[in-house]
């Protein structure tokens, strides 16, 4: 069977997991944040060493409080951005039904309250990640969407995997970026 249809309501919990997955596995801003945190800690250490050598002990508290608050603010901003995005989508979509239809030729995504539909060709798919509950599909323009496995009403996962591995563009090594992130029993 060369077709998969998933139909379900918008789930803020599922989308939160999707955004967290994106934050920790796909986003380059996370690596920049880790670089920033490491740089701040190293700078704080050097400035503390200099302050001890010059006898300016009062600046040590200022340096480390600045480092601490910068780190906390940066991490908090990342998570608050996810929370804000989910809140906006929840307000916009509420109880709308989303239908994702995957065929041999393309992927069509329709959202009940949103006019029109999103049509994605297999050549636009960059990577697909599958975990126990969801399938994350990323397109080349750094956007993506998810399919909740419980919402699949027609077709099966084996057919979807086969379809994706045959239709997705290959990397330079001749492989597709389809990763199963859990061990099947």
Structure, explained:
The longest helix has 36 residues. It is built from four helices and nine strands, in the order E-H-H-H-E-E-E-E-E-E-E-H-E. 13% of the residues are buried. The strands form two sheets. A five-stranded antiparallel sheet has the order 4-3-2-1-8, with helices on one face. The chain has a four-stranded mixed sheet with strand order 7-6-5-9, with helices on both faces. The two termini are 23 Å apart. It has two domains: 95 residues, Pleckstrin-homology domain (PH domain)/Phosphotyrosine-binding domain (PTB) (PH-domain like, Roll); 71 residues. Helix 1 crosses helix 3. With 185 residues, it is of the alpha+beta class. Helix content is 48%, strand content 25%. The model has no long low-confidence stretch (mean pLDDT 89).
